[in-house]
Design brief:
640 residues, Rossmann fold, Thr-specific_kinase-like
Length: 640
């Protein structure tokens, strides 16, 4: 039997018109607000009556809620409103207890993930003290398209970005465990669909599609006082590279943009702006056009209130005000000598911190670089270490498992210029090779110096081309399977193969926002009096219907035991730092740790609002469901 390849197909479903009305769906065992739900497989048909021998075909992974158990079949509906659609045989559906799914990371710098028939087959490799000796032969067989004992499927070779083309790999079960070397992992049981054999010339298809690959580089530069030398040098790089691109006939394939940021104009009106887009990718393609667009970009005439600037406003503008949809290569380059104003600070214009912006960049497929100028003024203000920590977090890239943070010693203008020249030329050269159908067709780069910006950019370029090819080439018709997968590379245990997300409805996200706000308000009250924080939260729990007598000892009662966070977050494969808090632990925290906890809650709250407002990301898992049942994929890492 040949190895089957899963296809990450978009969730497309045909509308169903056979609707009647019942009461509410059946509750899950032990739950008060979570209803029983199933996902369809390709074998499913929706029948008007349970005894019918035929019915309407239903697309794979349509979500239905169970209204009645009829023995061998379920009476189902598309949502929880009472509307029913018909009957599904139990044999063709899978239970979906946790509304979670798996999203693959880009496979460019790691082994492709294998899906095992049983958990035991996966566990053997997890427990092995020398997994490479077992996995390497498996990868050899994979390259020859041979069957691997115990393996039923494999991750696609090209990367499908779920932010552009949503696909569903539902998580059916999970267990957190540990490799033989002590590294943690999640073993996840997933359902998936498989790809039928493709008879086209794969390599030719890749080469042809790769020729249309385009890249955009947006510089986000600090234009506060003292930054003029770096502003001028960045302008010089853009003009020089624009001429080079034109000479290489790549003007339609590589575009540059520039955004400038300062700080709060409410605090210092003379700063003129917090963040300003001077040129978007594609608006200028030659030296003269760039010169005209950038002629008014100069350093500020007055000082900001803090040494820190609102660099996060500049990054947010790059992510939200630039249309990245035409580009396979997406790069943002931050240039500053100062740290970023914290999202919880009153002078922050975004309310976001590095973690939330990193999640948003990941969502949009954008790589963020940071050129940190280690100037004397930064040293005098003891700012270097704080800024370094912020920007290493902001620029951490899961694909290559490292931060794209590059310090410039003493803020040397010449050294800085060399770095941005190198980066711009490296990206341009990748696009040139892609235009010839080269580069991403072989293996991922294996640079000798993995600390250099050139090797980082080569690895990222390869990954972005894989993502582009995956989107362009798509996948074919499905068949169904389920199996077990590791969320870590089975050899390089520090490399993440996949990211679990929870799919929240609008009501659930709204509830999450409201409760996070209540916890935040109580935490602010609890800085001086810890007992006030938990007293308020106990009152909130009682107002939500909790029995006061069930809330136990006040000092040792954990926040998670109050039942504030909804049942939709229970049993998820993640550990919540907030839910583990009790009054004594909070009281024993120092002021810095308490303030950091509050800051984390504030930035999460702002991120939830941003998700709620982004209409384009809400996905229907059944075309007949009410609009309120649409879901939004929230990474587990941004949950409270």
């Amino acid at each position: 039997m040949k190895l089957r390849y899963i296809t990450l197909s978009a969730v497309l479903m045909s509308a169903l018109s056979c609707n009647t009305y019942a009461d509410t769906p059946l509750l899950m065992d032990g739950k008060k607000s979570i209803y029983q739900r199933v996902l369809t497989t390709p074998a499913c048909v929706l029948k008007k009556n349970a005894a019918d021998s035929s019915g309407d075909k239903v697309a794979a992974f349509s979500r239905f809620y169970i209204y009645k158990d009829e023995g061998n079949s379920y009476l189902v509906g598309p949502d929880v409103s009472g509307k029913t659609s018909g009957y599904l045989d139990k044999s063709c559906v899978v239970d979906w207890k946790m509304q979670t799914a798996l999203m693959f990371t880009n496979p460019a710098s790691r082994n492709r993930a294998l899906i095992f028939k049983t958990k035991d087959e996966l566990q053997k490799l997890v427990d092995d003290s020398d997994p490479k000796s077992k996995v390497s032969p498996m990868m050899d067989k994979l390259s020859k398209n041979e069957q691997i004992p115990g393996v039923i499927s494999v991750e696609p070779e090209t990367y499908i970005d779920y932010k552009k083309q949503f696909y569903l790999l539902p998580i059916l079960d999970f267990e957190e465990t540990m490799f033989d070397d002590g590294n943690y992992l999640r073993e996840l049981k997933i359902a998936s669909v498989t790809k039928k054999e493709n008879k086209s010339n794969g390599k030719t298809d890749l080469q042809n599609e790769l020729k249309t690959f385009k890249a955009a580089v947006v510089f986000v530069i600090d234009s506060s006082i003292s930054m003029q030398p770096y502003i001028d040098r960045t302008k010089e790089t853009i003009r020089t590279i624009a001429k080079h691109i034109k000479d290489q006939k790549l003007s339609d394939s590589v575009h540059f943009g520039l955004i400038s940021f300062r700080s709060s104009t409410k605090a210092v009106p003379g700063l003129e702006y917090v963040s300003k887009v001077f040129v978007k990718p594609g608006e200028a393609t030659d030296e003269e056009q760039f010169k005209k667009k950038l002629e008014t970009l100069n350093q500020a005439k007055v000082s900001s209130k803090y040494f820190d600037e609102d660099s996060f406003a500049g990054i947010n503008s790059a992510l939200e005000k630039i249309d990245w949809s035409d580009y396979g290569g997406r790069y943002v380059v931050l240039i500053t000598d100062a740290g970023g104003i914290s999202g919880s600070d009153k002078l922050s214009s975004t309310g976001l911190d590095s973690k939330e912006l990193r999640a948003e960049a990941k969502h949009k497929g954008v790589a963020i670089y940071a050129m940190h100028l280690l100037t004397d003024s930064g040293k005098r203000n003891s700012n270097h270490d704080r800024a370094k920590n912020q920007y290493q977090d902001l620029t951490f890239n899961e694909t290559i498992q490292k931060s794209l943070y590059y310090p410039v010693n003493a803020g040397d203008v010449s050294s800085f210029g060399n770095k941005i020249d190198e980066l711009s030329k490296s990206i341009t050269n990748q696009v040139k090779l892609a235009s010839q159908g080269k580069d991403a067709l072989g293996t991922a780069p294996d640079p000798k110096d993995d600390s250099s910006m050139a090797s980082d950019t080569a690895a990222l370029g390869y990954a972005m081309q894989l993502a582009y090819l995956g989107e362009k080439l798509g996948t074919s018709a499905p068949d169904f399977l389920s199996g077990w997968i590791s969320d870590r590379d089975l050899v390089a245990h520090d490399k993440v193969t996949s990211t679990p997300v929870v799919l929240l409805t609008k009501d659930e996200l709204s509830s999450l926002k409201d409760i996070t706000k209540k916890i935040l308000d109580s935490a602010n009250e609890g800085i001086l009096k810890p007992e006030d924080m938990f007293s308020q939260l106990r009152s909130v729990a009682v107002s939500m219907g909790r029995d006061p007598g069930s809330l136990g000892n006040a000092d040792s009662l954990k926040l998670g035991e109050l039942g504030l966070l909804g049942e939709y977050l229970e049993d998820l494969p993640y550990k919540s730092r907030i839910q583990e808090l009790d009054e004594q632990t909070w009281a024993n925290m120092g002021p810095d740790e308490q303030n950091q906890t509050i800051s984390d809650l504030e930035t999460k709250l702002n991120y939830y609002q941003q998700c709620n407002d982004d209409a384009a990301r809400w996905i229907k898992l059944n075309p007949a469901e009410d609009a309120s049942m649409a879901v939004y994929p929230i990474p587990l890492e941004v949950l409270p």
